[in-house]
Amino acid sequence: MNRPTIRSLLGLGTILVLLGVAGPIGAPARAAELYAPETLDRYFKLEWSRAGKNVNGYVYNTGNRRAAQMILLVEGLDGSGATVSKTTTWVRDVPPNNRAFFEVPAPPAAAYRVSVLSFDWVEDRLDRRKTW
User: Fold this and answer.
1) Are the C-beta atoms of 48 and 63 separated by less than 8 Å?
2) What is the spatial distance between Cα 100 and Cα 7, in angstroms, rounded to a whole number?
3) Hey, where are the domains in the chain?
4) Nearest Cα to 44, choosing from 59, 66, 65?
5) What number does CATH give the domain 38-122?
6) Cα angle, residue 98 at apex, residues 47 and 30 outer, rounded to 5°
7) Which parts of 6-97 are beta strand (E)?
8) Which residues pair with 90 in a beta bridge?
9) 11, 25, 45, 119: which has the fewest Cβ within 10 Å?
10) What is the model's pTM?
11) DSSP class of residue 42?
């Protein structure tokens, strides 16, 4: 009866470790969207304009929960409405029933479109204490 040696097990372990390390190196898997873009309209309103070399504006949070770590997609559009450039920017904190300012350098374009790519709902600790 052949028993595996330490050397052969070490070789197998090394291969498994390399396979485990090599697996996630590719493109990261994205989590499924929890909200369809149309449903975000009831929580967030966006207004923006071009100012010099930047696109700036406000994100309005109409909900009763704080939104944090928001990523906005700013698309430059040509005259026919086709996307000619894309850039993103972070908005760290959008308080409930309030607004937050954003500004991002953007290449010149005929028009712009800004949309929410992702965000996290954050529960305020003070609000939690009130419910106890």
Assistant:
1) no
2) 60
3) 38-122
4) 59
5) 2.60.40.10
6) 70
7) 44-51, 54-61, 66-77, 83-94
8) 71
9) 25
10) 0.67
11) T
